[in-house]
Amino acid sequence: MEATNKNIKRIIEKMTVTYKDWHEMLPFALLAYRTSIRTSTGATPYSLVYDIEAVLPIEVEIPSMRVLAESKLEEVEWAKQRYDQLNLIDERRLTALCHGQCYQQRMARAFNARAENPQRAV
């Protein structure tokens, strides 16, 4: 939680001009945080929760291939695609879990290497 708050604070600091307007930028900072890929999982928090990548506002204004493809689908075909995506959600979450465990192992090895040889930490 502390790391999340630190990252959101860092995003807000880059977006605000004065400290008084931080509350106006909070929704945009949260959107940026939720739609950016985390190194530890290899996926965005949004995609892990909803099993679909978020449609960014710019994709609505300037349609991306994904938005164009989905807008031309009939309702039945869209429902079938969505059902197929939901069936794959467990697989995506397991992949993210595996990626997170590998990331933790890499971090533990790096920490242990620094602990064994303190001169290298500088």
Topology:
Elements: H1 2-15, H2 22-34, H3 45-50, H4 57-61, H5 65-71, H6 75-87, H7 89-116
Helix pairs in contact: 1-2
N-to-C SSE string, H for helix and E for strand: HHHHHHH
- Mean pLDDT across the residues is 76
Q: Please mark out the parts with pLDDT under 50 across 5 or more consecutive residues, or reply none.
A: none
Strand content: under 5%
The total count of helices amounts to: 7
Helix-strand category = mainly alpha
Gap from first CA to last CA? 28 Å
**Radius of gyration, whole Å:** 20 Å
What is the β-strand count? 0
Q: How many separate structural domains?
A: 1
Describe the structure.
- By secondary structure, the protein is mainly alpha-helical.
- The chain has one domain (2-121).
- 70% of the residues lie in helices and 0% in strands.
- The protein has 7 helices and no strands.
- The protein has helices at residues 2-15, 22-34, 45-50, 57-61, 65-71, 75-87, 89-116.
- The longest helix has 28 residues, at 89-116.
- The radius of gyration is 20 Å and the shape is flat.
Keywords:
7 helices, 122 residues, RNaseH_sf, Integrase catalytic domain-containing protein
Summarize this entry quickly.
The protein is mainly α and 122 residues long. Helices cover 70% and strands 0% of the residues.
